[in-house]
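Dear support,

I submitted the protein below through the web form. The confirmation email said the job was done, but the results page showed an empty box. After a refresh the structure appeared. I'm attaching both so you can tell me whether what I see now is the final result or a partial one.
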Amino acid sequence: MAYKFKPNKAVKKRFRVTSKGKLKRGHSLTSHLRSARTAKKKRELRRPEILFEGHAKNMRKLMGISGNHPSTHRNKARKTAPAAAAAKA
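What the results page shows now:
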């Protein structure tokens, strides 16, 4: 009997997946001692950041969603665009 893959729950709690398969992450330095930071820095830290694709690839694998990859969406768009243009002509 084969090993059943178990997704990593800690990774799943730390990242959210966008519709195109990218991963959004929160910032550190937001929980305490915020008076030491400028208002501009606190505003910037509120917004989520897109995870670098090199790391995101590994995190998607741990989460068990390795099929959702941004480049696959990009390739589909490229393949359908010329077909749509040919259909118009």
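Response: this is the final, complete result; the empty box was a page-load delay. The chain is about 50% helix and 10% strand.
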